[in-house]
Structures are given as C-alpha cells and as structure tokens.
Amino acid sequence: MSYVKVTDIAENERLDKEYPQVLCIMGPTASGKTSLAINAAKLTNGEVISVDSALIYQDMNIGTAKPDTLEMDGVKHWLLDIRNPEQSYSVADFRRDALAAIDDITARGKLPILAGGTMMYFNALINGISEVPATETKVREQVKSLIEEKGLASVHRMLADVDEVTGNRVHPNDLQRTSRALEVYISTGKTLTYWQSKKTPQARCQFTQFSIMPDARNTLHARIEQRFDLMLNNGFVDEVRRLVDKYSLHLDLPSMRSVGYRQVYQHLKGEYSYDEMRQLGIIATRQLAKRQITWLRSWQNINALNTDDESNLTQVLQKLGA
Questions:
Q1: pTM (2 d.p.)
Q2: Is position 201 annotated in a ligand binding site?
Q3: Which of 62, 88, 286, 308 is the most exposed place for a label (fewest CB within 10 A)?
Q4: Helix pair angle (175-188, 152-162), 10° resolution
Q5: Which of 5-19, 185-199, 200-214 has the least mean pLDDT?
Q6: 3-class DSSP assignment, residue 151
Q7: Which residues does the UniProt site feature Interaction with substrate tRNA point to (predicted)?
Q8: Mean pLDDT of 266-295
Q9: Looking at the domain assignment, is residue 153 inside a domain?
Q10: Average pLDDT of the residues in 206-224
C-alpha cells in the first residue's frame, strides 16, 4: 500500500492556489467546439482564446467558420485576425501569445477558455516547445539554390549525414522540413535534433481538458460536407477571390495551405472545376479531422464529450466546479 505524505498534500494545495485554472475544449473540425466554448464562457465569466492556425488570419472568415459578433454573443475572443494572409505565425508565436492572454484574463478574475483544433498549438502550450532559432533569408536562399542544383534527394542525404535522427524522421520528398532542418544546421552549427531537445518548461496552469466529437465517423463526415457546402453558398469562392486581389498569395503560404482555401485558390487558377474543388475540399477537411482525432485519442487527462449530447455544457460546468 502506498501513502501520500501530508507535505505532498500541502504542496498540491499550494499549487492549486497559485496556478490559474484554464479550460481546454479540443475537437476535430465541425464538432461544435466554438458554441460550447462560448456557452461555457457566458456561465463562468470566461474569455475564449482561439487555438486555430487559420482563425489568426484577417479577411479569412467564411472558409474558417470564424465566429461573427452575433455568435460571440458578447464573449471576448483572443487570437483572431492577428496576421494578414501573407504572414506566417509559428507554434512559438502562439505559445507566447496564448500565455500572455491567460495572464491578462486571470489577472482580471476571469476564466481562460482555450478552444480549437490545432493540436500542435495545444501540445506546445501545455507540454512546452523546442525553441528552434530563426534562420536568415540568405541561408534559406542558399538551401533553395542547393536543392535546385543537386536535387531534393541529394540534399536530404546531406541532412541525414549531419543529423541522422531528423534525416530518418523526415521523408526524403518533404521539401519544407528537409529545407528547414538544413537551414537550422547551417545557421547555428547545431542540428535540429539538438534544438528540439531544448524544450521550454510546461505551462504553470491547471488545465481542465475536454474533447468533443460525434460518436460515429459518418456523422462527422456528414457535418463536414454540410458545413463546406454552407461555406460555398455563403460566398467562400468570392472571399478567396478578394484575398487574391488584395494580397500577394501563393500555395507555399501557411494561410493558403489551410483546408478549403487551397482548393478554392487552385479552382480560381483554373486547376480544378467547381465540382472538383468542392469534392477535394471536403476530402481534405475529412483528412484533417482524421489527424485531429488521432491526436485526441492519444491525449492524456482528457474528458470525452459527444457532440450530440445535450448535457455537454453541464458536464463541463460540473468538472470546473462552477
């Protein structure tokens, strides 16, 4: 039989008092995260922090299902519209901004509610992140020229020679990750594996975590198709057309790699018919949902909710003790 020391209990009570409570609502796309987070915020004096790599972008509203003022219903939202579609936003950027938002919200006696489906963001916030240094433009151009001259396969072998762990993990056809790893090595003289071993500490918060999704996969697939069609009916194609007119966009930008936007962009460039774009957009969204669910199934200390259960909000409030 194992015993818990009184000093351990006292330490846990001290941590409970010192570390702010944070509610996390995670789930695949089209699972009902946003409405649950807003309803929870209204009943707990909370504010919502978006955990979504597409919602950060200005002028990208329809294809991201970004909540409008009516849907927000007076609840303050953080990390929406903080970049234009030409700009990048790293996992480290998110962690910094989310922690700052948590500090601001808790300082005013409110409950931070993190809601979204970008699981890398959640993981970085909760478990810490490897702070890989940024690389200079001249180094990126050097690696790009090297790939054009010698070919991606040859450059991948060069990477594997200096960083065997990353070389084994990154697929030889993965241009972006191969380039990034070699850029880091050239810039710093240290491998990506080295930098990834240097993690920031875990966030000092009490995270109460929920996942939400339908029980049946075909139910989620139907919701995804219905939502994508609703986006198209609400002017998704025109939204992307306005983005193309306003910004200098291409498919290597993170904003245009967002599901739906990539397919509509290619449709506008004449690569897909409307029907092909619609079908490929739905398929890409389902694939995203599958990846999100894979993350969630391996997640620790999470409370599972069914999208169709009317008691979800009650379960969240009970867990919070609200």
A1: 0.81
A2: no
A3: 88
A4: 50
A5: 5-19
A6: coil
A7: 118, 140
A8: 98
A9: yes
A10: 96
Ligand-binding annotation for 65, yes or no, is no
**150 and 192 co-located in one domain:** yes
273 annotated to a ligand binding site: no
Does 1 map to a domain? no
33 marked ligand binding residue? yes
**Same domain? 82 vs 180:** no
For residues 312 and 297, give the distance between their C-alpha atoms in angstroms, rounded to a whole number.
Answer: 19
Instruction: Reply yes or no on whether the pLDDT at 271 is more than 70.
Output: yes
Per-residue confidence (pLDDT) for residue 17, from 0 to 100: 54
Q: Is 260 annotated as a binding residue?
A: no
Helix (H), strand (E) at residue 264: helix 261-268
Confidence of residue 269 (pLDDT cuts 50, 70, 90): very high
* Residue 64, marked binder: no
Burial letters 287-303, b for 16+ CB under 10 A, else e: ebbeebbebbeebeebe
The mean per-residue pLDDT over the stretch 130-140 comes to 85
For residue 219, give the CATH number of its domain. Answer: 3.40.50.300
Instruction: Provide the residue range defining the domain that includes 186.
Output: 137-196
Only one residue has tokens 């609400």, namely 234
Tell me: is residue 214 an annotated ligand-binding position: no
Q: pLDDT tens digits, residue range 216-257?
A: 999 999 999 999 999 999 999 999 999 999 999 999 899 999
pLDDT of residue 132: 81
**Residue 283 resides in a domain:** yes
Alpha-carbon span 137 to 193, nearest angstrom: 22
- Is 42 marked as binding a ligand? no
Among 153, 175, 196, the domain boundary falls at 196
Question: Tell me, what CATH number does 177's domain have?
Answer: 1.10.20.140
Same domain, 22 and 122: yes
Beta strands in the chain (DSSP E): 21-26, 46-51, 77-78, 111-116, 206-213, 302-306
Question: Domain for residue 314, yes or no?
Answer: yes
Residue type, 38: I
